[in-house]
Design a protein that fits this description.
CATH class: Alpha Beta
Strand order of the largest sheet: 2-1-3-4-5-8
Bound molecules: 2-acetamido-2-deoxy-beta-D-glucopyranose
Radius of gyration: 22 Å
Helix content: 40-55%
Distance between the termini: 46 Å
Pfam families: Lipase_GDSL
CATH topology: Rossmann fold
Shape: globular
Number of helices: 12
Structural class: alpha/beta
Largest sheet: 6 strands, mixed
Number of domains: 1
GO molecular function: lipase activity
Oligomer: single chain
Keywords: Signal
InterPro entries: GDSL, GLIP1-5/GLL25, SGNH_hydro_sf, SGNH_plant_lipase-like
Family: Belongs to the 'GDSL' lipolytic enzyme family.
Length: about 375
Amino acid sequence: MASECSLLGVILVFTLFRDLVTVSGQNIPAVGLFSFGDSNFDAGNRKFLTKATVAQNFWPYGKSRDDPNGKFSDGKIVPDFIAKFMGIPHDLPPAFKPGADLSRGASFAVGSASILGSPKESLTLNQQVKKFNQMISNWKEDYIQKSVFMIQIGTEDYYNFTKNNPNADISAQQAFVISVTNRLKNDIGLLYSSGASKFVIQTLPPLGCLPIMRQEFNTGNDCYEKLNDLAKQHNAKIGPIMNEMAKTKQGFHFTVFDFYNVILRRTQSNMNYRFSFTNISCCGIGTHNAYGCGLPNVHSKLCEYQRSYLYFDGRHNTEKAQESFAHLLFGADPNVIQPMTIRELIVYPLDDPMREFWEDPMEKKLSLVQNVVHDFDASGSM
Ligand SMILES: *[C@@H]1O[C@H](CO)[C@@H](O)[C@H](O)[C@H]1NC(C)=O
Ligand SMILES: *[C@@H]1O[C@H](CO)[C@@H](O)[C@H](O)[C@H]1NC(C)=O
């Protein structure tokens, strides 16, 4: 009896200890984190690339931490939380900040970045990859191979397309989506050629539900479905592209985060996730508080309690929301991130081929239904 108790104690202590270690990230290899893309992942790079005033360097950005540091949030952003879970002892630094400690990786993402085009005072994904290659001697080859590369980009492309082509028909849309996703695939291939092997790609959120799009396209409490459609078309191509790369490029590992549905669920059933406000921003002016957060000529309207909002400004999430996304990325179930979590991606043996791939959630649902029907048939025949 006594020995059973102490065994239980040992198991309990072990379990607690293991969980503690997991939380602090100590039992996974000390690898690096690199982020690429647009404002969602910009760790403060923009101000090093432009002489213009950068609103996100001013209050109330960083409000929850009293630290306006060029991130588009009231506090930290997703890659900062991922860095923490990985045991990196500081936020992910902006790659272009002189003197930043880049030893555990860096953010190459810049606000307003796009995949196509030549964004003003920003960089395309392709230009970010070129900057990474210029700085590549900062890291050892095998360190790059083991490190995590997160990419979030595309919003700017589809927003720009919709503004310039309000009446684009289906075939023009499809052609644009193909040119964007082909270029994205090409840029990911360039990172792979530079030695990266572990990729985390986020799908685009429902772009038409962003407060700034509702405000700009005057949709009131509805989402602007044209932009949601484009995001869906783009997203449908991501999984298959990544599957193909993993099947054709040796040691290519990836996972896809279903950001679209993560945001949609929070938008539609907001109280399940404790967000009182999902159709308007916390900081800014206009019908949806979506413009001008941080700008000196705007007397920014700032909400009282950031944590009850899904969006901090017109198109970026609050720190509370970003922290929950990071938890999903690092340890959620396969409905949200597949075929594996970031944690599993980190420990996945280098050079091993992937054994599981991305599956279309709609097809998965169908096969589930077929299984149920099959089960029913089986029991009926007994
Ligand atoms: C936006 O679209 C215009 C016209 O198609 C193009 O010239 C420009 O480079 C695009 N900008 C971005 C950021 O994609
Ligand atoms: C936001 O949603 C609430 C609750 O559904 C609604 O009452 C309000 O009018 C919406 N705000 C805007 C600007 O559409």
